[in-house]
Structures are given as structure tokens and as C-alpha cells.
Design brief:
This protein is α+β, with helices and mostly antiparallel strands.
Length: 470
């Protein structure tokens, strides 16, 4: 409700989505060639092949999404909105028939958190049915089945939502957390744990839900007060009989004559109104919008932002402070964004990449000896980085100069600074610049040659005139 009706709550969730994921976290294969015993050239060739094959699967909606709505990067955005809104979300691995143009069978199906709940006779909607027992005796906590050691072994998924009006009976399916043969996950639980032995997530706005609700009510009250007050323009004070309700309509622009009716009170530019004895007119002085509204809301946004690790400047998208203050706010916010980006990578991107890579090797589209037999070699092939949107720059000149100084003094690398500044790859930038510089050199050379060809011959300078005898 807050996401749909409270602007500050919407802003808090979308800042997370935009800064953590943005257009999507892109795969950068970084296989461990030392473990694999590969030359740099062979490793670079294999990495490009892995990235190209993964893009073949990830960039098509019908290839990676079980519902056919989003590509893999859109699923990342969806997960980054569904997790903070509900506390967690689930990604179910499905298998479809592969075709010649769609060689991979892996499909991802994101599930709402409400569909994972403890099975009961009434469909798992009883308020006191958060815990239960599985057929094998394992306890179930909010749809999460654990063994006697507390390890998650399965999830119970309903085909309907709580309190959904449907003629279809509610049925539950038990999905084991990991496959018995492959050890790969059958379902991913995208959740940020806050307590020990916590099996379900907590919404991102849980700690600030009450302040956000009151801020929304206060904003609506201010808007309504301003609207109501705008209807009152003038009040006529009279000592005469008020039973006739002497309230007339305002004069329109096409009326050039003032009404003589004593019960008509007209207002307009240039109007001359003669008031009756005992009558007076008074105008209401507006008191809304409240002059302290912005100050109060700003103070509340600072408290909400402190709890959410999002500074008020970023939450409101209002950077009216100095450069140092605004940059400090962005740096503090990006500490949390980078942490959650790494968390999303480990919880969602890398498990999906491992499941896809396993199928790619099994189908022979990627040749990776030892991938299916040796866990160390498998881990070496799966080494990867996921590159997302970079941190915003308030002053690009200063940012680039700082990056250059960091590289020159050995505090950072060109590759790291390229990712930080604009999310690009240094090696790819060098390749493109080499090609562009070569094309520019040829173009300049051709222009120079053409210029020499069409240049008109130089005319001889006229001989100086003889000096005047005078």
C-alpha cells in the first residue's frame, strides 16, 4: 500500500532498484587460468565464448523467462523490487523443450513471497498456521521446510494467493531446495537475513513503515486543506436578513454590466460595487500550504533515510547542498548499494550462471574439460564478475583526475577505475580506441591527400613597382 500511495516509500524502493541493478548486471567471465593451466590468449578466447553464449540465453525473453515477459536483466530488476517490498522472493528453475534456435532448456520463474506458505486444510491462509509439519516429520516455518539440524531442505508453493477469489482449489507442491543428482538448486530464495535462524525475509520498509504512513497522511491533509481553502475568496458581512442566501455567481468575462440585484455579489476586474448599509467584505488570508511543511518533511526524510541507508538528498533527488556534502551523501549511499549488489550477485546471478553453465557444458556448446567431474576445476570455470551501473559523478573532471592519480600511484588499476567511472571494460575500451584511432588516422591521411590534389596552383607574386622618383 505504501509503495502504491506514498511517494517517499516508492522513491526508497526504486532508488535501490535503479542503483543496485539499473539496466542489469552484465556477466564478465574471469576464469582462473592458473588453475586450468591455460595461456592468456586461450583464456581470453574462452571467456568471450562464454559471454556470447550466455548473452544468447539471457537477452531473449522467451529463452530465459518462464512467463516470457522479461529477459534476464529485467528479472534482476523485478527481483530487486519484489524482495524489499515483500521481504523475499523466490526463483524457480524450470525446464522447457530446447529448439534449434533456443538451444537451452533453462527457464526462470520468479514467484511472489505470498505463494510460499505452510500447507493447511484451508489453503494456508489461517493467521495462526505459520508453522506445521511435513509428511516426513520435518517442521515447516512459513512454507520453508527444515530438517532436524535446521538446514533448509524444501519449499512448499501454493498455486493460489492468500484470500484469492477463485474456483480453483488451493494445492501445494513441495520443491526440494537442491537436486539429488546434480546438487544444483531447484529454487532460489532471495532474502536478506537479519536474525539468526531466520527463514523468511523482512520487508525493507518495515522499520520505517509507521513514519512513512503518517507522512503520507500529513501530506494528504495539507493538500486537502489547500484545496478547500482555495474555494473561499471573499466573505460578505451584513446586518440584513440572511434567509435569502445572498450568494451570487462571479461575473463572467462577457458581462459588462453589474447586476442590480441586492443579493448578487460580483467580482471582476474594474467592477464597481455599491454595498448596502451595514455590509462589509473581508478576504480570507490563506494559511496553506503550511510554511513549515517542507522543513518538517525534510527532517522526517532524514530519519527515514538514515534507517534505510539512503541519504535524504538521494531519497528526494534534491542536491541543494555543497559539492562536498552532496558527494559525501552519494559515497555513503553507495556503500549500501555495493553491498546489496554483491548480495544479489551471490543470491541470484551466480547460481543462475552456474545452472546455465552446467547445461551449456553438458550440451557441448562450451568445451570445459573437468567441469562436470572436478569441483576445483568447476569453480575455476565459474569465476565471474557482474558489472552494473556506476556511481554518479557530481564533477566529472575531479573524478577523472582522482582516478588518474590513483592509477599513477598504484592505488588502483585502469580496469577497476573504468568500471567505477562508467561501468565499462578497460580491455574493450582499448580495443575500440585502437580501431577508432586507426580509422581516424586513415581519414586524416585521405583528407590531407585530397587537399593536396585539389589545391589550386600558387600564382606568382606580382613584381614590386619601381620607386617614385619624387
Amino acid at each position: 500500500m505504501l509503495y502504491m500511495a506514498a511517494p517517499i516509500a516508492t522513491a526508497a524502493l526504486k532508488r535501490q532498484r535503479t542503483n543496485v541493478v539499473g539496466n542489469g548486471l552484465r556477466l564478465k567471465s574471469t576464469i582462473n587460468r592458473e588453475v586450468l593451466g591455460m595461456t592468456p590468449e586461450a583464456a581470453e578466447k574462452l571467456q568471450k565464448q562464454i559471454e556470447a553464449e550466455f548473452a544468447l540465453w539471457a537477452e531473449r525473453k522467451d529463452s530465459c523467462d518462464a512467463t516470457g515477459i522479461n529477459d534476464f536483466y529485467g528479472l534482476q530488476q523485478l527481483a530487486m523490487l519484489a524482495w524489499p517490498m515483500s521481504g523475499d522472493c523466490f526463483c524457480l528453475f524450470r525446464r522447457y523443450e530446447s529448439t534449434k534456435m533456443q538451444p537451452y532448456s533453462l527457464r526462470l520463474h520468479l514467484l511472489e513471497a505470498d505463494r510460499v506458505r505452510t500447507p493447511t486444510a484451508d489453503g494456508g491462509i489461517t493467521m495462526l498456521s505459520t508453522t506445521g509439519k511435513a509428511a516426513n516429520g520435518n517442521p515447516i516455518y512459513d512454507g520453508v521446510e527444515v530438517d532436524r539440524n535446521g538446514r533448509i531442505v524444501a519449499y512448499h508453493i501454493a498455486n493460489t494467493y492468500p484470500f484469492q477469489n477463485t474456483l480453483e482449489p488451493t494445492k501445494f507442491v513441495r520443491v526440494e531446495a537442491y537436486g539429488k543428482e546434480t546438487g544444483l538448486p531447484n529454487i532460489l530464495h532471495i532474502m536478506d537475513s537479519e536474525r539468526c535462524e531466520q527463514y523468511r525475509g523482512v520487508p525493507y520498509l518495515a522499520q520505517v513503515m509507521e513514519p512513512l504512513l503518517q507522512m503520507r497522511r500529513y501530506t494528504e491533509a495539507e493538500i486537502m486543506a489547500a484545496i478547500v481553502q482555495s474555494f473561499f475568496t471573499a466573505f460578505v458581512k451584513t446586518e440584513g436578513d440572511t434567509t435569502e442566501m445572498p450568494f451570487g455567481e462571479p461575473a463572467s468575462t462577457d458581462v459588462h454590466e453589474v447586476s442590480k440585484d441586492p443579493t448578487d455579489y460580483e467580482m471582476g476586474p474594474g467592477n464597481t460595487v455599491i454595498m448596502e448599509p451595514g455590509e462589509d467584505v473581508a478576504f480570507g488570508s490563506p494559511t496553506h500550504p503550511n510554511t513549515g511543511f517542507n522543513v518538517f518533511m525534510r527532517a522526517m526524510c532524514e530519519q527515514v533515510g538514515a534507517a534505510l541507508e539512503e541519504p535524504a538528498d538521494l531519497l528526494l533527488m534534491s542536491f541543494n547542498s555543497s559539492y562536498s556534502a552532496s558527494r559525501g551523501a552519494l559515497l555513503e549511499a553507495w556503500k549500501a548499494f555495493k553491498m546489496r549488489r554483491e548480495w544479489l550477485t551471490k543470491s541470484f546471478c551466480r547460481p543462475v550462471f552456474e545452472a546455465w553453465m552446467t547445461e551449456a557444458v553438458a550440451r557441448g556448446r562450451i568445451i570445459a574439460p573437468g567441469f562436470l567431474t572436478d569441483p576445483l576445476i568447476r569453480q575455476a570455470y565459474l569465476q565471474s564478475e557482474w558489472i552494473g551501473p556506476s556511481q554518479g559523478q557530481l564533477d566529472p573532471t575531479k573524478e577523472v583526475q582522482a582516478a588518474q592519480m590513483a592509477v599513477e600511484n598504484g592505488f588502483s588499476t585502469r580496469e577497476a577505475e573504468a568500471i567505477r567511472l562508467n561501468g565499462s571494460e578497460y580491455a574493450s575500451n582499448v580495443d575500440k580506441l585502437t580501431s577508432e584511432n586507426e580509422r581516424l588516422r586513415k581519414a586524416n591521411g585521405a583528407n590531407a591527400q585530397n587537399t593536396q590534389t585539389v589545391k589550386p596552383p600558387t600564382e606568382p607574386e606580382p613584381e614590386p613597382e619601381p620607386p617614385d622618383d619624387e
